[in-house]
């Protein structure tokens, strides 16, 4: 979501570029991890909503993309809580560097093996260290059912994720959108979404969750896609995890 509209306590940083040429990396990434429903969703939203009919063409072929690694996506969301995108990226780079890599894919076992002192030296607070260790424990000990997520509904996955320390509903909903690429998530706790609805539908007047929910009713069953475009209306840079 745009930097100006992120929720204040669960804000993930942007993606770390990999080492292959940027254009080739982008093409390979989007080919492997973009949702197959996107074009149909855009047609549906353009038919149902005058604002999205205007917004969608502005962003060309850009679309949602997933990292493809559940543990790393959630770890990044914890590292980025309560700090700016720039600061989060810096901390993440140092944290991943402690394990000898750029952090594209982190192993839960390596995180659990880290000493608290090393994690603190990377710039992590004591609480974030605890959160990351708890997250690693959930993954390594099988307390999250990664292989079953594809068959689970959204609320069941949210319930499983919020049992992990440091993960609230907002982070779980971002995970549904950006990692599992679920098509119909409406994150009403997201300040960026509320601001975007305010700007695009209410002439900048503040909106309530109830009003945002009402606007989003026309977007179903592709509320995740609509949310992505609303974010982009505030910040033209692609939203990445």
Question: Topology, please?
Answer:
Blueprint: H1 22-33, H2 38-48, H3 50-55, H4 70-79, H5 85-97, H6 108-113, H7 116-121, H8 126-140, H9 154-161, H10 169-178, H11 191-201, H12 209-217, H13 223-234
What is this entry, summarized?
This protein is mainly α and 241 residues long.
Give a written overview of the molecule.
The chain is mostly helical. It folds into two domains: 81 residues, Endonuclease Iii, domain 2 (Orthogonal Bundle); 107 residues, Orthogonal Bundle (Endonuclease III, domain 1), CATH 1.10.340.30. The protein is built from 13 helices and no strands. Helix 9 crosses helix 10. It starts with 21 loop residues before the first helix and ends in a 7-residue tail after the last helix.
What are the key terms here?
single chain; 241 residues; mainly alpha; Endonuclease Iii, domain 2; Endonuclease III, domain 1; 2 domains; 13 helices; 0% strand; globular; disordered N terminus
**CATH top level assignment of the largest domain:** Mainly Alpha
- One letter per element, helices H and strands E, the order comes to HHHHHHHHHHHHH
CATH topology of the largest domain: Endonuclease III, domain 1
| Low confidence ranges | 1-32
Shape estimate: globular
Count of domain modules = 2
Distance between the termini: 10 Å
Gyration radius over CA: 18 Å
Question: Would you tell me the structural class of the helices and strands?
Answer: mainly alpha
The CATH superfamily of the largest domain is identified as: Hypothetical protein, domain 2
Mean pLDDT metric:
84
Percent in helix: 40-55%
Beta content comes to under 5%
Number of strands: 0
């Amino acid at each position: 979501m745009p930097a100006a509209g992120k929720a204040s306590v669960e804000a993930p940083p942007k993606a770390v570029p990999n080492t292959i040429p940027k254009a080739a990396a982008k093409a390979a990434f989007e080919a492997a991890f973009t949702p197959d429903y996107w074009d149909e969703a855009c047609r549906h939203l353009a038919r149902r909503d005058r604002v999205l009919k205007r917004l969608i063409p502005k962003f060309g072929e850009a679309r949602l993309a997933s990292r493809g690694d559940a543990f790393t996506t959630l770890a990044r969301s914890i590292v980025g809580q309560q700090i700016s995108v720039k600061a989060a990226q810096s901390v993440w780079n140092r944290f991943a560097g402690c394990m000898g890599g750029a952090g594209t894919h982190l192993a839960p076992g390596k995180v659990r093996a880290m000493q608290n002192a090393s994690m603190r030296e990377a710039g992590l607070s004591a609480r974030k260290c605890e959160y990351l260790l708890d997250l690693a424990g959930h993954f390594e000990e099988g307390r999250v059912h990664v292989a079953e997520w594809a068959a689970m509904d959204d609320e069941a996955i949210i319930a499983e994720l919020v049992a992990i320390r440091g993960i609230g509903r907002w982070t779980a909903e971002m995970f549904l959108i950006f990692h599992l690429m679920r098509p119909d998530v409406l994150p009403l706790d997201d300040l960026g979404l509320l601001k975007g609805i305010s700007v695009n539908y209410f002439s900048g007047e503040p909106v309530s969750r109830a009003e945002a929910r009402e606007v989003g009713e026309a977007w179903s069953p592709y509320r995740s896609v609509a949310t992505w475009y609303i974010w982009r209306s505030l910040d033209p840079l692609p939203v990445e995890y």
